[in-house]
Amino acid sequence: xxxxxxxxxxxxxxxxxxxxxxxxxxxxxxxxxxxxxxxxxxxxxxxxxxxxxxxxxxxxxxxxxxxxxxxxxxxxxxxxxxxxxxxxxxxxxxxxxxxxxxxxxxxxxxxxxxxxxxxxxxxxxxxxxxxxxxxxxxxxxxxxxxxxxxxxxxxxxxxxxxxxxxxxxxxxxxxxxxxxxxxxxxxxxxxxxxxxxxxxxxxxxxxxxxxxxxxxxx
Length: 218
Fold this sequence. Notes:
61% helix, disordered N terminus, disordered C terminus
């Protein structure tokens, strides 16, 4: 099975995809496998973007596809009480990233040295050139420092932090993705952010975590 974002590798699953819960889609796909295309349409871009930020675009093309192949193969084991499949898919993707820890660490270290790992300084009309250059240089420095700090995190802490910051998952969703208790997510996220603060020296440079819902106190 070959998958790639936006290519239409799955057959058309019908016009009712927008109103079905993910759990309903997975359940229907047990008997009608093509229906699984709905989840690909909903989440392929998100998964690709997450993996690309961790391993680069080339790796993301392959691992995003592999994420959905694995999910399809395991769809009969999906917990149908979970209406949203997004944490499940992010968990599969994170496990795949885990097979490339050295690649990720090398990439982050390289990014920490490369000026190209910078946010675009912008092209606001009327903004003085020297201001744009100063902003770009500041963004480059912050990005390099952040990349180096991320490389220094233990892998298990980096997974929790980036699922929250780049995947947009809350505590409960991150716990579900990784198969760990919510309390462990809280502890690892706290330690990861504390280590980044020590490395970076400023709150502003930390990756922004997703907002956490009040009911995620379990």
